[in-house]
Amino acid sequence: MNGKEKNTENTSAHAHISSYSEHFGTWVALILLTLMTVFISTFGADLRTLTVATAMLIATVKALAVALYFMHLKYDAKIYTAWMIVVMALFVFFLIMVILDYITR
Amino acid sequence: MADSHIFVLPNSGHNFDAKASKMGMWLFLFTELLLFGGLFLVYMIYRFLNQDAFLLASFELNVWMGTINTIVLLTSSMTIAMAITALQKGNAKLAITLSWLTILAALGFLVIKYFEWSSKFEHGLFPGMDHFDGLPLGERLYFYLYFFMTGLHALHVIVGGVFIAVVIRLIKKGKVTKERYSLLENSGLYWHLVDLIWIYLFPLFYLIH
User: Which of B81, B82, B203 has its CB closest to that of A55?
Assistant: First the structure.
């Protein structure tokens, strides 16, 4: 069966079926990013703050890969992505408020 | 008037709504994200205030055990995602095998975690132990957060594993099928969330260098 084929017999569920190879590809990317972040932190730069930023950037790329492909957000109804953005915005708002609180003490 | 006291739901007997159950799962996952999000904020502030102590304390962790556990979790995320694909394509047997592999990975993760925590106990690095209580505040804060956050995460690993085991049973009973795979999908979503949180826990606790 083609991975992109529409599942018309079940309208209550979503139509898209992710292929095995797509999941495997996502996994390969995640493993490579993991090895990269370990390598950078263990053998990498002397600039501590820069390594923290790099580690967080890599973690975010990994999280996006998991959310979009494993959690199927890329192919699902847009409402889930919209919710996710709202929740992340809420978190960033908390983050900014906490930072503002600490730097203005 | 005679049968006005009988209230029948419009969809009685067909209380299956894949979309609604998925939305419910996502809403629950958002509360989980904010639960851990709060903890990450606490971590951020204490790390900012105790940068050197956090660095020093992080050397107690074994980067390689953390890396192996990360790979184990990422692999289990792939197997549960593939299990959903298998069930959607009608291959229940493969879906069950892949789900078992996910549970196996969950157990592997917990075994490694057990060895990691045991070695901390052996070094007296647990709140209440003499060595721990003698540490500077910054290092103690690091370990408080380490034990609480990885402990709460490990609890989620256990719950996720049990959830998947229940779904395997239901697939065998024919209650979760090619047409009704919501429960497998939701257990998968929960499992990916566990993975998602670990993706941040790993660099924040193991990779401070």
Answer: B203
Is B4's pLDDT higher than 70? no
Spell out the domain ranges in chain A: 1-74, 77-105
Best of B31, B88, B200 to disrupt the A interface (most A CBs within 10 Å) is B88
- The DSSP secondary-structure symbol of B89 reads T
* pLDDT of B36 above 90: yes
Tokens of B15: 């209380």
ipTM of the prediction: 0.87
Query: Do A38 and B67 make contact, defined as CB atoms within 8 angstroms?
Result: yes
In a mutagenesis test of the B interface, which of A27, A33, A105 is the best target, namely the one with the most B β-carbons within 10 Å?
A27
> How do the domains of chain B map onto residue ranges?
19-206
CATH class for the region spanning B19-206? mainly alpha
pLDDT value of residue A3: 43
